[in-house]
Amino acid sequence: MKKMLIIASILVSMMFMQINHPLAMGLILLMQTVIMCLISGLMVQTFWFSYVLFLIFLGGMLVLFIYVTSLASNEMFNLSTKMMMTSMVLTTFMTTMMMSMPQNNMDLTNQEMIMNNENILLLMKLYNGSSSLITILLASYLFLTLIAVVKITNISKGPLRQMY
């Protein structure tokens, strides 16, 4: 599964270099983010870090999407046949390479049990008694920062595109 996601990441990165429309670049960047979050979730065996990473990237993508649509709202979006053919050839090439690779015969159950125990210990260290004060302080600081940003923002100069 990890091999397929890494190959998909490489293909999406190659497609990103051939695209010139800003909205298509944003879509490719979102696909790359989802793939990277899946890879990091599979490597650590807990997906909480991947969820946080995805939400941060999604917030940044929202700002990027609003900015791009205000600048390039009337450009036409068309698909390049050259890019589609290149991606299809690369996909079949990478898939055949992946199928021809030998598989590891390691005992995965013992390895998975060790990783699960390590992850449980890491989560217990994050929320134990001595570090719970730091976690509560960080959440309070972020909440107060959110309130300050909302109060400082000028409502009349908020959106980039004026609503009529």
Give the DSSP E fraction (strand runs of 2 or more residues). under 5%
Helical content (DSSP H or I, runs of 4+): over 70%
Termini Cα gap: 49 Å
Mean pLDDT: 75
- The count of DSSP E runs of length 2 or more, i.e. the number of strands, is 0
What characteristic shape results from the CA principal axes? Answer: flat
Number of domains: 1
Number of helices: 6
Estimated radius of gyration: 22 Å
Helices and strands, in N-to-C order? HHHHHH
Describe the biggest sheet?
A: none
Q: Which runs of at least 5 residues are low in confidence (pLDDT < 50)?
A: none
Structural class: mainly alpha
Textual characterization of the structure:
The termini are far apart. The radius of gyration is 22 Å and the shape is flat. The relative contact order is 0.09. Helix 1 runs antiparallel to helix 4 (81-100). It has one domain (2-157). The chain has helices spanning 2-16, 22-44, 48-71, 81-100, 108-126, 129-152. By secondary structure, the protein is mainly α. It contains six helices and no strands. The mean pLDDT is 75.
